[in-house]
Amino acid sequence: MNFLVENDYYTMSGYYEFIGKMSSNTMITGFRGPTKIKFKDGTTVVFNAPDCKLGGMVVGARTIECVGSLVFHDVAHRLKAVVIFGTYKESGFWDKTVTGSKSNITGLIYNVVAKNNIVPAFGKS
User: What does the alpha-carbon distance between residue 79 and residue 11 come to, in Å, rounded to a whole number?
Assistant: First the structure.
């Protein structure tokens, strides 16, 4: 899917590939690709879309969670923001171990060192 949105304040463009992975009772879906927003002052920000985890596909309560991370990168101003969704992990068969939180959102904004100031390769699975 390619898209272009233009108005007096910004231009937003990008492309996505829709992905999906099914397990026994959950499905993880998402878009792979970048979105670029160019503002009227010339600032350009590139970001990705987080994945969604759909639970209860066969049995149990139907749930939707954002999982993975969302990355914003402003190359000109050497700024990057990372938002991490859902740190919840469940492991074990007989003895279940649960860590993290389904509703936790963690974020960080930082200056990027000049040599590492490259746009991330959005689109990798």
Answer: 20
Q: How confident is the model at residue 74, as a pLDDT?
A: 93
Class of domain 2-114: mainly beta
| pLDDT at 109 (0 to 100) | 95
Query: Model confidence over 88-106: pLDDT tens digits?
Result: 777 777 788 887 777 778 8
**What distance lies between CA 105 and its chain's CA centroid?**
12
The model's pTM is 0.76
d(CA 64, CA 28): 10
Distance CA 101, CA 87 (A): 5
Residue with tokens 């829709």: 18
Output DSSP code: residue 77: T
> What are the boundaries of each domain within the chain?
2-114
